[in-house]
Amino acid sequence: NYWDVNQGAIGATAQNIAEAAKLLQQGDTVAFPTETVYGLGADATNTTAVLQIFAAKGRPSDNPLIVHIADVNQLPSLVQSDSLTTDHLALMQAFWPGPLTIVLPVLAGSLSPLVTAGLQTVGIRIPNHPVALQLLRETGLPIAAPSANSSGRPSPTLASHVRDDLDGKIGGIVDGGATGVGVESTVIQLVDGELYILRPGGVTAEQLHVVLPKLPIHVSEPTEVEASDTPRAPGMKYTHYAPKGFMHIVQGDDVQEVSAWIQQDIDAAKARGESTGILTFEERAGEYRADLILACGSLSEPDSIARELYGALRTFDHQGISYIVAEGVPDSGIGSAIMNRLLKAAGHERIRL
Ligand code: TXA
Ligand code: MG
Asked: In whole angstroms, how far apart are CA 342 and each of 157, 210, 301, 310?
């Protein structure tokens, strides 16, 4: 069951979304586009349905799912309303619909316990994508939706990525074309008047600071040891996004030195018989020789790097590249999310020159 809402008449589009909504109501899984990445949705109140998400993705059961809603009016039926502070409301006002997931105390019994993986909290967001919003509205349900990739693979930014990973394991895909942001939502939690970024993503720390200038902002780095009092997104402990080949990151202030180092490293790998790849940017792609050089967006427009990152990681796999060197990006703005995902993809193998 694959539907393409871009192809075919507008009527067919509405019809496909209606059909997808019906599947979700019946307890099936459907992949759909959001502004960040494709999600694999199921009725968050239906344990049998949610089980199918974990089964299709091969996802560890201790990793909770994000719940997607169409309207803030759905919140009181899902979370403890008295826990909502003016800071929460300011964030919702500023960033919803959008790539911000807010972790809140769950209203007992409102969701399948599998969604929260036994936690007392639930991550909720309103996605900013017309197809996602229409689908959510038509179901009238809270929809649990992790990224629609096999666990550990790069998240899908195209319907074809979903098909590559999950064909035959899910009820269907609504194809809305390429997603916009390209990396997942920012997951945050407010604790004792301080803001914790549990996963950097589409909303930057700088943007959060503008909305809540007085609030201290902490970033829970995925490299932190597990035993910590800091709230963390359980999902961040898992290996993710890794291409099949070996990958490491090279970073430095002197771009000449970086390109020279990378070229030498790649040449040595080639001499050992590796199939070589370089993940770089439009401005720098001309500097290199390798079997596959991917210009992943432009350094002058970091949003374009985020948008193309996961597709690029998948391309290395398709081309059978066994040895990849990636250039790093400055760790600010959307660059924080990009570096977070690159480091995970590289298993934290990083060389700083
Ligand atoms: O952009 C996105 O967020 C996409 C689209 C589909 O909405 N979804 C997504 O879901 O990335 P997923 O399951 O791949 O990542 C969810 C992250 C995980 O790191 C998980 O541990 C964290 O959110 N999370 C979910 N519920 C949580 C909770 N109650 N407390 C802390 N972290 C939570
Ligand atoms: Mg994911």
From this structure: 16, 26, 17, 10
- Angle, CA 66 vertex, CA 63 and CA 70 arms, to 5°: 170
Nearest protein CA to atom 3 of ligand 1, as residue:
185
**310 touches 182 (CB < 8 A):** yes
Q: Are strands 39-43 and 30-32 parallel, antiparallel or unpaired?
A: antiparallel
Whether ligand 1 lies within 6 angstroms of the CB of 200 is answered as no
35 lines ligand 1 (CB under 6 A): no
**Closest to 199 (Cα-Cα) out of 320, 296, 338:** 338
Name beta bridge partners: 327. 250
Nearest ligand by distance to the CA of 165: 2
Q: Determine the 3-state secondary structure of 194 from DSSP.
A: strand
Query: pLDDT truncated to tens, each residue of the chain (353 aa)?
Result: 567 666 655 445 788 899 999 999 999 999 999 999 999 999 999 999 999 999 999 999 999 999 999 999 999 999 999 999 999 999 999 999 999 999 999 999 999 999 999 999 999 999 999 999 999 999 999 999 999 999 999 999 999 999 999 999 999 999 999 999 999 999 999 999 999 999 999 999 999 999 999 999 999 854 333 444 555 677 666 667 888 999 999 999 999 999 999 999 999 999 999 999 999 999 999 999 999 999 999 999 999 999 999 999 999 999 999 999 999 999 999 999 999 999 999 998 999 99
Q: What is the dihedral of CA 83, 88, 93, 97, to 10 degrees?
A: -90
Ligand number, closest to the Cα atom of 39:
1
Give the residue whose CA is nearest to atom 17 of ligand 1: 235
Q: Does ligand 1 lie within 6 Å of residue 131's CB atom?
A: no
Span from the CA of 255 to the centroid of ligand 2 (angstroms): 32
Q: Is the CB of 128 under 6 A from ligand 1?
A: no
* ipTM rounded to 2 decimals: 0.99
**Closest Cα to atom 29, ligand 1: which residue?**
122
246 alpha carbon to ligand 1 midpoint, in Å?
26
Ligand 1 in contact with 39 (CB < 6 A)? yes
How many A from CA of 299 to the centre of ligand 2? 25
